[in-house]
Specification:
Helix content: over 70%
Number of helices: 3
Structural class: mainly alpha
Largest sheet: none
Radius of gyration: 14 Å
Order of helices and strands: HHH
Length: 84
């Protein structure tokens, strides 16, 4: 269960980080503000979970982060879609 929790928090953290990068580059101020709040909350949780489990989960966390960054590309496209 601990590995799943760490993988999930790592995925969400990477997704938020990737989305935040695109928010800043695209000058989306409101999205950047709210993403920052979520991002640092999830980062704190990730650090706590990794500290409990240890570094043996690093490869799994890395895989989750990779999927998270890919997901962030799709998420940002949805959030920043211009209304016509």
């Amino acid at each position: 269960m601990e590995y799943i929790t760490v993988m999930l928090t790592t995925f969400v953290s990477a997704t938020l980080r990737g989305t935040q990068n695109k928010n800043v580059i695209g000058n989306h101020r409101a999205l950047a503000f709210f993403t920052a709040i979520l991002m640092y909350t999830v980062d704190a949780a990730t650090v706590v979970f990794v500290a409990k489990v240890g570094l043996s989960l690093a490869p799994f966390a890395g895989i989750s982060a990779g999927f998270g960054y890919i997901a962030s590309m799709y998420l940002h496209r949805l959030l920043s879609r211009r209304k016509k």
